[in-house]
Write a structure and sequence with these properties.
Layout: H1 2-28, E1 30-37, H2 41-54, E2 58-65, H3 67-75, E3 82-84, H4 88-96, E4 106-110, E5 113-118, E6 138-141, H5 147-158, H6 162-165, E7 169-172, H7 175-184, E8 189-193, H8 194-198, E9 203-208, E10 218-223, H9 230-240, H10 243-251
Parallel strand pairs: 1-2, 1-3, 6-7, 6-8
Antiparallel strand pairs: 3-10, 4-10, 5-8, 5-9
Protein backbone atom coordinates (compact mmCIF):
# COMPACT_ATOMS: atom_id res chain seq x y z
CA UNK A 1 0.00 0.00 0.00
CA UNK A 2 2.78 2.36 0.88
CA UNK A 3 4.40 1.67 -2.49
CA UNK A 4 1.13 2.46 -4.29
CA UNK A 5 0.71 5.69 -2.32
CA UNK A 6 4.27 6.66 -3.09
CA UNK A 7 3.84 6.01 -6.82
CA UNK A 8 0.58 7.98 -6.82
CA UNK A 9 2.26 10.87 -5.03
CA UNK A 10 5.20 10.71 -7.44
CA UNK A 11 2.82 10.79 -10.40
CA UNK A 12 1.03 13.86 -9.05
CA UNK A 13 4.34 15.59 -8.32
CA UNK A 14 5.64 14.91 -11.83
CA UNK A 15 2.40 16.14 -13.38
CA UNK A 16 2.53 19.36 -11.33
CA UNK A 17 6.17 19.88 -12.26
CA UNK A 18 5.36 19.38 -15.94
CA UNK A 19 2.54 21.92 -15.74
CA UNK A 20 4.79 24.50 -14.07
CA UNK A 21 7.58 23.84 -16.55
CA UNK A 22 5.14 24.09 -19.44
CA UNK A 23 3.82 27.40 -18.12
CA UNK A 24 7.34 28.76 -17.76
CA UNK A 25 8.24 27.68 -21.28
CA UNK A 26 5.07 29.27 -22.62
CA UNK A 27 5.92 32.50 -20.83
CA UNK A 28 9.49 32.37 -22.11
CA UNK A 29 8.20 32.08 -25.66
CA UNK A 30 5.75 34.99 -25.53
CA UNK A 31 6.09 37.04 -28.71
CA UNK A 32 4.32 40.36 -29.08
CA UNK A 33 3.58 41.47 -32.63
CA UNK A 34 3.46 45.26 -32.85
CA UNK A 35 2.20 46.98 -35.99
CA UNK A 36 3.49 50.54 -35.85
CA UNK A 37 3.77 53.64 -38.01
CA UNK A 38 7.04 53.80 -39.97
CA UNK A 39 8.05 57.06 -38.26
CA UNK A 40 8.35 55.18 -34.95
CA UNK A 41 11.01 52.74 -36.18
CA UNK A 42 14.09 54.13 -34.43
CA UNK A 43 12.38 54.97 -31.15
CA UNK A 44 10.69 51.58 -30.82
CA UNK A 45 13.90 49.77 -31.75
CA UNK A 46 15.64 51.72 -28.99
CA UNK A 47 12.88 50.86 -26.52
CA UNK A 48 13.02 47.13 -27.30
CA UNK A 49 16.18 46.18 -25.33
CA UNK A 50 15.18 48.46 -22.45
CA UNK A 51 11.84 46.69 -22.15
CA UNK A 52 13.38 43.26 -22.39
CA UNK A 53 15.88 43.95 -19.59
CA UNK A 54 13.12 43.49 -17.06
CA UNK A 55 10.84 41.31 -19.20
CA UNK A 56 13.23 38.86 -20.80
CA UNK A 57 10.38 36.39 -21.35
CA UNK A 58 8.74 38.70 -23.92
CA UNK A 59 10.05 39.06 -27.45
CA UNK A 60 8.99 42.18 -29.35
CA UNK A 61 8.51 41.83 -33.09
CA UNK A 62 7.77 44.96 -35.09
CA UNK A 63 5.90 45.46 -38.34
CA UNK A 64 6.50 49.01 -39.57
CA UNK A 65 4.58 50.67 -42.38
CA UNK A 66 2.07 53.31 -43.38
CA UNK A 67 -0.76 53.48 -40.85
CA UNK A 68 -3.41 52.94 -43.53
CA UNK A 69 -1.62 49.88 -44.89
CA UNK A 70 -1.24 48.44 -41.39
CA UNK A 71 -4.94 49.00 -40.73
CA UNK A 72 -5.77 47.11 -43.92
CA UNK A 73 -3.52 44.22 -42.88
CA UNK A 74 -5.20 44.01 -39.47
CA UNK A 75 -8.68 44.15 -40.99
CA UNK A 76 -7.73 41.31 -43.33
CA UNK A 77 -6.69 39.13 -40.41
CA UNK A 78 -2.94 39.64 -40.20
CA UNK A 79 -1.70 38.70 -36.70
CA UNK A 80 -0.94 41.63 -34.40
CA UNK A 81 -1.18 42.27 -30.67
CA UNK A 82 -0.63 46.04 -30.54
CA UNK A 83 -1.36 48.76 -33.08
CA UNK A 84 0.27 52.21 -33.00
CA UNK A 85 -0.81 54.54 -35.81
CA UNK A 86 0.29 58.03 -36.76
CA UNK A 87 -3.24 59.44 -36.84
CA UNK A 88 -6.61 59.04 -35.13
CA UNK A 89 -8.43 57.94 -38.26
CA UNK A 90 -7.05 54.41 -38.41
CA UNK A 91 -7.50 53.75 -34.70
CA UNK A 92 -11.00 55.20 -34.78
CA UNK A 93 -11.88 52.77 -37.58
CA UNK A 94 -10.76 49.77 -35.55
CA UNK A 95 -12.48 51.01 -32.41
CA UNK A 96 -15.77 51.55 -34.22
CA UNK A 97 -15.59 47.99 -35.52
CA UNK A 98 -14.92 46.60 -32.05
CA UNK A 99 -11.37 45.64 -32.89
CA UNK A 100 -9.70 47.06 -29.76
CA UNK A 101 -9.43 45.69 -26.25
CA UNK A 102 -11.64 48.07 -24.23
CA UNK A 103 -9.75 50.44 -21.95
CA UNK A 104 -6.35 50.00 -23.64
CA UNK A 105 -6.41 52.92 -26.07
CA UNK A 106 -4.07 55.79 -25.24
CA UNK A 107 -1.87 58.40 -26.88
CA UNK A 108 1.82 57.55 -27.21
CA UNK A 109 3.11 60.95 -28.37
CA UNK A 110 2.64 63.92 -30.68
CA UNK A 111 4.76 65.19 -33.56
CA UNK A 112 5.32 68.16 -35.90
CA UNK A 113 5.24 68.26 -39.70
CA UNK A 114 8.26 69.66 -41.51
CA UNK A 115 9.21 70.52 -45.07
CA UNK A 116 12.70 69.17 -45.71
CA UNK A 117 15.10 69.79 -48.58
CA UNK A 118 18.55 68.46 -49.53
CA UNK A 119 21.22 69.93 -47.28
CA UNK A 120 22.77 72.17 -49.94
CA UNK A 121 19.48 73.67 -51.16
CA UNK A 122 18.85 77.36 -50.52
CA UNK A 123 15.80 77.99 -52.69
CA UNK A 124 13.14 76.81 -50.24
CA UNK A 125 12.70 79.13 -47.28
CA UNK A 126 8.92 78.93 -46.93
CA UNK A 127 6.00 76.86 -48.15
CA UNK A 128 5.40 79.46 -50.87
CA UNK A 129 8.84 78.64 -52.23
CA UNK A 130 7.39 75.38 -53.51
CA UNK A 131 5.84 77.37 -56.37
CA UNK A 132 9.27 78.35 -57.67
CA UNK A 133 10.08 76.85 -61.11
CA UNK A 134 13.33 75.37 -59.76
CA UNK A 135 11.27 73.11 -57.50
CA UNK A 136 10.08 70.35 -59.81
CA UNK A 137 9.35 67.37 -57.52
CA UNK A 138 7.76 67.50 -54.06
CA UNK A 139 7.54 64.18 -52.20
CA UNK A 140 4.58 63.46 -49.92
CA UNK A 141 3.03 60.32 -48.52
CA UNK A 142 0.21 58.64 -50.39
CA UNK A 143 -2.79 60.57 -49.09
CA UNK A 144 -5.11 57.56 -48.90
CA UNK A 145 -2.89 55.56 -46.55
CA UNK A 146 -0.08 57.72 -45.14
CA UNK A 147 -1.04 60.17 -42.37
CA UNK A 148 1.98 62.40 -43.13
CA UNK A 149 0.63 62.76 -46.66
CA UNK A 150 -2.80 63.66 -45.31
CA UNK A 151 -1.29 66.31 -43.04
CA UNK A 152 0.80 67.65 -45.94
CA UNK A 153 -2.25 67.99 -48.14
CA UNK A 154 -4.06 69.84 -45.35
CA UNK A 155 -1.17 72.31 -45.10
CA UNK A 156 -1.13 72.95 -48.84
CA UNK A 157 -4.89 73.49 -48.87
CA UNK A 158 -4.75 75.79 -45.84
CA UNK A 159 -2.13 77.96 -47.56
CA UNK A 160 -3.94 77.87 -50.93
CA UNK A 161 -0.95 76.19 -52.55
CA UNK A 162 -2.34 72.80 -53.52
CA UNK A 163 -3.51 73.74 -57.01
CA UNK A 164 -0.24 75.54 -57.73
CA UNK A 165 1.97 72.58 -56.83
CA UNK A 166 -0.27 69.59 -57.56
CA UNK A 167 1.59 68.70 -60.76
CA UNK A 168 4.86 68.56 -58.81
CA UNK A 169 3.69 66.10 -56.19
CA UNK A 170 5.19 62.61 -56.16
CA UNK A 171 3.67 60.08 -53.81
CA UNK A 172 5.40 57.55 -51.55
CA UNK A 173 4.12 54.51 -49.67
CA UNK A 174 5.29 55.77 -46.28
CA UNK A 175 6.99 58.76 -44.70
CA UNK A 176 10.43 57.12 -44.73
CA UNK A 177 10.23 56.77 -48.50
CA UNK A 178 9.55 60.51 -48.66
CA UNK A 179 12.67 61.14 -46.60
CA UNK A 180 14.72 58.81 -48.84
CA UNK A 181 13.52 60.62 -51.96
CA UNK A 182 14.78 63.94 -50.63
CA UNK A 183 18.03 62.41 -49.36
CA UNK A 184 18.77 60.92 -52.78
CA UNK A 185 17.88 64.07 -54.69
CA UNK A 186 14.95 62.38 -56.41
CA UNK A 187 12.76 65.07 -54.85
CA UNK A 188 13.55 68.75 -54.34
CA UNK A 189 11.51 68.88 -51.15
CA UNK A 190 9.34 66.61 -49.04
CA UNK A 191 6.90 66.58 -46.14
CA UNK A 192 8.02 64.45 -43.19
CA UNK A 193 7.77 64.56 -39.43
CA UNK A 194 10.35 66.58 -37.53
CA UNK A 195 11.50 63.30 -35.96
CA UNK A 196 12.27 61.88 -39.42
CA UNK A 197 14.37 64.92 -40.29
CA UNK A 198 16.25 64.46 -37.04
CA UNK A 199 17.65 61.06 -38.07
CA UNK A 200 19.11 62.26 -41.40
CA UNK A 201 22.30 64.21 -42.03
CA UNK A 202 21.44 64.59 -45.73
CA UNK A 203 18.46 66.90 -45.36
CA UNK A 204 17.62 70.08 -43.52
CA UNK A 205 14.36 71.51 -42.27
CA UNK A 206 13.25 74.41 -44.44
CA UNK A 207 10.12 75.22 -42.47
CA UNK A 208 7.94 73.62 -39.78
CA UNK A 209 4.17 73.69 -40.29
CA UNK A 210 2.17 75.59 -37.72
CA UNK A 211 -0.09 73.23 -35.78
CA UNK A 212 -3.12 75.21 -36.93
CA UNK A 213 -2.42 74.23 -40.56
CA UNK A 214 -3.38 70.58 -40.07
CA UNK A 215 -5.11 68.11 -37.78
CA UNK A 216 -3.27 67.26 -34.55
CA UNK A 217 -0.42 64.83 -35.22
CA UNK A 218 -0.74 62.13 -32.59
CA UNK A 219 0.08 58.46 -32.22
CA UNK A 220 -2.79 56.49 -30.67
CA UNK A 221 -1.96 52.99 -29.40
CA UNK A 222 -4.10 50.07 -28.27
CA UNK A 223 -4.19 46.32 -27.78
CA UNK A 224 -6.07 44.43 -30.47
CA UNK A 225 -9.05 42.26 -29.61
CA UNK A 226 -7.76 39.38 -31.76
CA UNK A 227 -4.48 39.30 -29.84
CA UNK A 228 -3.46 35.94 -28.39
CA UNK A 229 -1.38 37.75 -25.75
CA UNK A 230 -3.72 40.40 -24.37
CA UNK A 231 -2.15 40.62 -20.91
CA UNK A 232 1.36 40.94 -22.37
CA UNK A 233 0.06 43.58 -24.78
CA UNK A 234 -1.45 45.53 -21.89
CA UNK A 235 1.85 45.36 -20.00
CA UNK A 236 3.76 46.72 -23.00
CA UNK A 237 1.31 49.59 -23.45
CA UNK A 238 1.67 50.41 -19.77
CA UNK A 239 5.44 50.51 -20.18
CA UNK A 240 5.12 52.86 -23.18
CA UNK A 241 3.17 55.23 -20.94
CA UNK A 242 5.90 55.22 -18.30
CA UNK A 243 8.84 57.52 -17.63
CA UNK A 244 11.56 55.40 -19.27
CA UNK A 245 9.75 55.13 -22.61
CA UNK A 246 8.76 58.80 -22.49
CA UNK A 247 12.41 59.72 -22.02
CA UNK A 248 13.36 57.82 -25.17
CA UNK A 249 10.53 59.45 -27.11
CA UNK A 250 11.59 62.95 -26.02
CA UNK A 251 15.22 62.25 -26.90
CA UNK A 252 14.12 61.30 -30.41
CA UNK A 253 12.17 64.53 -30.87
CA UNK A 254 8.63 63.39 -30.09
CA UNK A 255 6.33 65.53 -28.00
CA UNK A 256 5.23 63.72 -24.85
CA UNK A 257 2.77 65.02 -22.29
Amino acid sequence: MRRKHFLAFLGIALTSFSLVLGLQLAQANTTLLISAAASLKEVLEEIKPLYQKTRSNVNLTYNFGASGALLQQIEQGAPADVFISAAKRQMDTLEQKGGLVPGTRGNLANNRLALVVPKNTRIVTSFSSLKEPEIKRIAIGEVRSVPAGQYAEQVLKKLNLLNDVRSKLVYSNNVRQVLAAVESGNADAGFVYITDAKISDKVKVAVIADDSFHSPILYPMAALKNSKNVEAAKAFLQYLSGDEAKGVLRKNGFIVK
